Amino acid sequence: MITTLHIKNIGIIEEITIDLSRGLNVLTGETGAGKTLMIDALLILSGERFSKEMIRKGESNSFIEANIYLPDHPQAIDGNIIISREININGRNLCKINGRMVTVNELKEFMETIIEIHGQNANQMLLDNQYHLSYLDGFIGEKLECKNEYNTYYEAYCKIEKQLKENYGDEKERERKLDLLKYQYEEIKQAKLKNNEEEELDAQRRIMLNSEKIAENLKQTDIALSENAIDSISVSIRALEKIENIDEKYEKTTSNLKNIYYELQEIAREISNSREEIDFNDEDRNKIEERLDIIHNLKRKYGNTIQEILEYKEKIKEEIEYIENLETYTNQLKEEKNKTVEKMQKLADKMHNIREEKAIELSQKINEELKDLEMKNAKINIKVEKQESFSKTGTDTVTFYIKTNLGEDEKQLSKIASGGEISRIMLGIKTVLADTDEVPILIFDEIDTGISGKAANSVAQKLHHIANKHQILCISHLPNIAAMADENYFIGKTVTNERTNTSIKRLNEKETLQEIARISSGEINEISLKYAQELRNKKVS
Question: In whole angstroms, what is the distance from residue 94 CA to residue 114 CA?
Fold first, then answer.
C-alpha cells in the first residue's frame, strides 16, 4: 500500500504530503481544488506521459514521490519501496526506484503490477485485451492447475525452437557456413604454427636488421682479441714462466694468467664463428618476413596469439563435425518438438474448455454486479477464442464484449464504454475477483459519474468489500462512498499573493461527518449531520 505520497509543483499544487492508510481512502473537496491532479500525479508516477504544461507556473520542475509498503515484494527494503519521478521544464526526466535510476518504460512496467488507475484520463488496463485473459484466469484460480504443467512444456518448446533456429538456418546457409569453417580450418592447418615461433622469428629478424652493425663490432672485437689481447697475454705468460720457480706467488699468477688465456681464446673463437653466422642473405631475410606476415594475418583473423589461433582451430574443427552431423541432431530435435507440441495441445485444449465454461460463469457474475451499479441493460460477454499458435498462456485469446443498451449489437469493451462506465465495470470485475486479484493498489476516479440512490449505495458497499484485500484511493462526490471510507481526506484550495494553492487534510470522525453532510446537501446543519450519521452507521467495520 502507499503509506506516503508527496507531490510538488503539479498544476495548482505547490507542495503537499499525504499519509494514506489501508482499506478505503476517500478524497472529497471543493470543485477545482485539485482532486483530479492527485490522480494525474499517480499516473505520472506510474510512468504515463507528462505534459510540461502541468508544471506549476513559474517553477522549473515537478516532483512526485511515494513510499509503498509491500513486505513480500523482491525489491522491497525493510518492506518499503520508494518510487520517485522528477520532470524538468526542459523535458529532462529522472525516475528512480529505491534510489536507482530507471527509464520511464522500466518505471511503467514496474508500476503496472502495483497500481491500477481507473478514471477519465487513465489508460485503463480493462481496455487492453492482453489483460482480459489474466482476469479470467484469476477468476478460475486453482481449477486451471494444468496451466503450470503447460508452462513447463511451453518452456521446453521455446528452447527447442531456439535450438532449431540456431542450427544455421536452411540447407544453403549451413553449406555456406560449413565452407567458411573448412576454409578457416585449412588456412590455419596449412600454416603449421608452433607456440613461441613468432618470438623466435622476431629475434632472428632483429639480428638481420642490425647485421651490419653487429658484424662491424664483432670484427673490431675479434681483431682486438686475436691480434692484441691474446698475443700480449702470451708474451706475459712466457715472461712469468722464467721467474715462477723463484716464488710461489709468481707461479700462482702464471697459472691464473694461463686460465685467462685459454678462456680468451675460447671467446675469440666464438666471436669469430658469430661473424660468419650473421652473414644472412636476402633469401633468408625474405623467408622470415613472409613467415611473420602469415602469422600476423592469422592473428588479425583468428586470435591475438598463436595459442589462441590454435585453440580456435580446434573449436571450428568441433563445429565442422557438429554441422556435418546436424541432420541427425535436427531430426532428434524435431521429434522431441512434435512430442512436446502434442502434449501442449492436449493441455491447451483442456485449458480452453475450462476457460470457455468459466467465461460464461464470470460473465454472469459481472452482469449481476452491473445491475447493482445502475447498468441494468449492460451485458458483458467474455469470449474465448482458440488461435493456431502457442503462447505462454496456451492457444486462447480472451476478449470482453459489452452491450450497453437493449437492441444494440455487442462490441469490444474498449470501443464502446465511457470513462464512468469503465470504472463501474472494473469495480464489478474487482468485486468478483477481490480474493484472487494480485494488484495491491486500486485508484478510482469518476466512478460515481451519473449514479445516485441505490446504485450509489451499491458502489460504496463494493468499494468497501474490495478494500478488505486492497488499498483503494477513491475521489468521489457521493456521501454514500465517503461514509464507507476507512479514512477521509478533504482537498481544498487557498489563495495567497494572488496564487491558488491546493491543500489536503486528513479528517477526524467529527470532520468526516461534517464533510459527508456538506456533500449530501450543500450545507452543514442538524438535518444533514443526522443523515451523515445514518450513512456512517451503515459502514461495516
Answer: 20
Structure-block grid coordinates of residue 319: 563445429
Distance CA 218, CA 275 (A): 6
User: For residue 277, what is its C-alpha cell?
Assistant: 653466422
Which residues contact residue 489 at a Cβ distance below 8 angstroms, ignoring those fewer than 6 apart? 18, 25, 26, 27, 28, 504, 505, 506, 507
User: 493-504 as b/e, with b when 16 or more CB fall inside 10 Å?
Assistant: beeeeeebbbeb
Burial zone of 275 (CB within 10 Å; 0-12 exposed, 13-18 middle, 19+ buried): middle
Pairing of strands 93-97, 100-102: antiparallel
Helix-, strand-, coil-residue percentages of the chain, each rounded to 5: 55, 20, 25
Neighbours of 424 (CB within 10 A): 31
Residues 152, 147: Cα–Cα separation, whole Å: 9
Pairing of strands 471-475, 13-19: unpaired
Q: What is the mean pLDDT of residues 272-288?
A: 71
β-sheet with 24-29: strand ranges across: 115-118, 441-444, 471-475, 24-29, 487-496, 499-506
User: What's the one-letter identity of residue 373?
Assistant: L
Please write the tens of the pLDDT for every residue from 77-117.
999 999 999 988 887 889 999 999 999 999 998 998 898 88
Write the DSSP assignment of 296-337 as a string of letters. Answer: HHHHHHH-SSHHHHHHHHHHHHHHHHHHHTHHHHHHHHHHHH
pLDDT in tens, 387-412: 989 999 999 999 989 887 777 788 88
Neighbours of 154 (CB within 10 A): 20
Which one-letter DSSP state was computed for residue 55? B
Q: Among 451, 473, 433, which residue's Cα sits nearest to residue 373? A: 451
**Shortest CA distance to 22 belongs to which of 434, 540, 440, 471?**
471
Contact (Cβ atoms closer than 8 angstroms) between residue 221 and residue 271 = yes
Domains and CATH numbers, the chain: 1-114+439-541 (3.40.50.300), 171-324 (no CATH)
Q: Measure the CA–CA gap between 422 and 449, rounded to whole angstroms.
A: 11
Cα 38 → chain centroid: 29
The C-alpha cell at 376 is: 441494468
Radius of gyration from C-alpha coordinates of the chain? 44
pTM for the whole structure: 0.64
Q: 267: part of which helix (H) or strand (E)?
A: helix 248-277
Q: Which residues contact 465 (CB under 8 A, 6 or more apart)?
A: 431, 434
pLDDT digits (tens, 9 = 90+) for 450-466: 677 777 888 888 888 88
Q: Taking the CB of residue 480, how many other CB atoms lie within 10 A of it?
A: 25
Q: Which of 383, 458, 449 is nearest to 417 (CA)?
A: 449
